[in-house]
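Usage

Read records sequentially. Each one opens with the input sequence:
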Amino acid sequence: MRFRVRPRRGTALLAVTALAAGLLLVSPQPASAANLVANPGFETDGTDGMPSCWEKSGWGDNDFTFATVSDAHSGTKAMKVTLTRRVDGDRKALITESTACAPVVTAGRQYDLGLHYRTTTPDAAITLFRHDTTAGWQYWTDLKTLDMAAAWTPATVRTPVVPTGTDRITWGVSVYGTGSATTDDYTMEQVSEPIPPATCTGTADECANGRWTVLPTQNPVRSMHSVVLNNGKVLLIAGSGNSEENFDAGTFTSAVYDPVTGSYEVVPTPKDMFCAGHVQLADGRVLVMSGNKAFPVVGGHGYEGYRESYVFDPVTETYSRTNDLNDGHWYPSATELGNGDVISFGGLREDSSGSVTAERWSNAQQRWLPLGQVNQTWSFWGLYPSMILMQDGRLFYSGSHVFGNGTPGTGSAIYDYDANTTTAVPGLRNKDERDQSASVLLPPAQDQKVLTLGGGNIDSNPAAGRLTDVIDLKAASPAYTAGPPIPQGTVDLGNGKVAETGAQGKMYVSAVLLPDGKVLETGGALHNRADPVFETSIFDPATSAFDPVAADPEARGYHSSAFLLPDGRVMATGDNPGNGTWNHDVSVYTPPYLLKGTRPSITSVIDSEWVYGDTQRITVDRPVVKAELIRPAAVTHSSDPNQRFVDLPLSVDGNNVDLNVTSNPNLAPPGWYMLFAVDANGVPSVARWVHLQGPSALAADTASAHVHSFADSLPGAVRGPERKRTSQKVSTTVSGCDRHYGTVGVCVPTAFPEGVKPTTVSRCAWLKRNDYGRLGVNGKDDPLGLDPDRDGVACGAKDLIRR
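and closes with the structure output:
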C-alpha cells in the first residue's frame, strides 16, 4: 500500500555540525535588501564541506550525500542533497541553528520564503524549524511539496504566524525519497501587510463573548448522533432515541437539517442506531456501524449490540446495508485511516458482553474485512474509546471513553496496527474519572497535540472534574502534561443555578474546532445524567489558556452534541437527563469572530478535487493570513476522534493564493473537507467544500507522505496481543443505571452523588428534585431501598414515612 507506514525499529539522527559565527558573505548574492537569509546562494565556504551558515540534518535509515555543486541558478554554487537508498527518514540542508545564522523572527508575524530548485524526485518539501525560548529547537511544519523539475524553478511559500515564544527559525528542503534536490538563492522577507481595524457589529458583550440563539424550530427527532454532510446539511441520527416506546414499535428515525432554510426532513431509518458508531467515508457517505439490538432486562442481560452496518448517502438521503461486522458493537469507536479504511474497537456484543474484536472497513473493497484479515489485540478497549490517527499511521488512545473506569494501566496508549503492539503513555491524571470527557487533536493537525478535558465516572458518580491534559505527540517520548483547568460556570442542582465551587467541572463535554485555530468547549453536567452545567469557553492552543464566553442557555448533558457549521457558527443539540425526557431545542453559537465586521470571501476555487502534495489556487477578496481544511463533524457522546484542522501553507500573489496540500494522508485522511480562509483578525470566510482524494486517485507524480520521527522512543510498557478469547465480561449496569426502577429510558443512578445520604428519604428527595416522577419497581428486588412498603412504587408517601 502506497501510504503504509513501516513500524519504526529505531531512529538514527544525523549529528549537526556547529559552525563558527561572524562569517562574512561574498558576492554575488541574488537577494533583496530585506533578505533575512545569510549566505543565501552558498557562495561562502564553511566547515565540514558545507557552506557558511548551512548544516547537514536528517534522520532514518538511508544512504545520502551532501554536495556543493557549480551548476547554480546564479553565482557559482548550489547545494545538492541526494538519497540513493531509503527505508525511512529524510536528509536536508538547513540554515545553521545558531544566533549568527538562524534568522530572527517576531512572534505574531509571517514571513515569505523563497528559493530556486531542481529535483529528480517527487519526494522533496520545504521544511521549517523554530527555536522556542524555553524548549529550544524543534520541528515546526512542512510548508510545501516541490514538484519535480529538470530546470531551475522558483518556489515560494508563507510561514504560519510565528508562535509566542519563538525568536528564530531555520528552514531548508527535505529529501525523503530516492533522487536529489538542488537548491539555490534562498530568500526570506517579513510580510508587511497591516492588520485592518475590526469593527464591532454587535453589542460590546457580544463582540467579546459571542452570542447564543435558540432556534424557533425544534429538532423533530431524539438525535444523539450529529454528522455534517458534504452538502452543508446535518444528519441527526436518533434510531429509537433511547425510547422504549419507539423501540417496541419499531419506530427508528433520523432527520436531515438544512442550516440555510432552517428546515428538517425526517428520514426513515432501518434499525435502532441509538448509540451506534459512525464515520465519514472518503466519498462523503456516512458509515454507521452497529447500534442497539436490545435494551437491558432486569435480572437478565444488559444492552446488546447488533452486527448490521449501513451507509447513508447524502445525495439520496437514504440508508443502504453493507455486509455485517464480525461482532456486535454497541458504542464502538470509528477512526478513518490514511488510506480511507476505517478501524473500530470496543462496544458491547450481541450477548451484552464486551467486544474484544477489532473491525476494519476496506475502502478498496467497500466492505468489512473477515476476522482473519484484521489484526487483533483481543483487548477490550471499552465503550467509545477515543482513537486518534497519528501522522505516522499509529493510533493514539487518549483515555477519553464512556461509562466507568478507564482501561487498566496508565489509561492512555499508542497502538501500532502493523506491529500489533500497544505501548502505555503516561501522565493522564485521574484516568478513572475521564468518563465522557472530550479529546481533540488541536489545530493545526501538523502540531500533533491532543487536548483532553473534563470527565467523571458514572459508577462512583463523583462530581465531574475540571482537569485538562495536553500531550505533544511530536516528542520522542510523549507524555500528558497538566493543562489549565476548565473555567467554572453555574450548575443547576434541582433548585436553580448556583456557581460551581471547589474542583467542580463537567462531564459530557463537547469540544469543537473553530476556523480561527481555537477550540470551543461547551455543555456538560456535574453528575451522571443530572445537574447540567452552564459554561462555555474558548481554548487557544497558542497560549494554552481558556477564555470564558457566553454560555449556551440550554442544558446539554447526556446525548448532547455540538459541531461546526460551514458558515463558522456552532450548533448544539440534545440533552437526555436521567428522568428520560429529551430537550428538542437547538442552540446556535455565533463566535466573536463573526461580529468583527466584514468577512473575507473565497471568490473562486479553481478545483474542488484535490490530491495529496498538490498546490491548489483560490482567489480571495482581501488579504488572508491562513487557510485550512476542517473535517466535518461526526460526533456523539463527547467523541469525534476524526475531527481535525489541517493547515494549508500559503503562497500569496495579491488576491491569488496558492494552497499547499500536505503529502501525508495520515494528517488529512481522504474525504470531503470545509475550506476556510481567515484574515488577520481571525475572521473566517464561509467554507467552500473540497474533496481530498484517496490513494487510488493520486496523480502519478504526487509525492509520498513525508512522515517524521515522532513518538519513536516510547518508554512505556509494550503489550502484544492478548490470548485469543471471545469477549470481556461487562456488568449489566455498565450504563450507570439501576433498571429495577422506571421504564427503560429512565436512569436511576446506581450510585447517587456525594451528599445524598444512603437513605430512602434522601434518595427520594434527590429523585424528586430531578423530576423523575412516578417510578414503578421492576420485579421483587429493591436494591436502593426506594420501596420499603413493597407496594411496587418507589418513593411513595408511605415509603417516606417508614424511612
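Summary fields computed downstream for this record:
- The chain has four domains: 54-190, 204-594, 602-695, 733-802.
- The longest strand covers residues 179-190.
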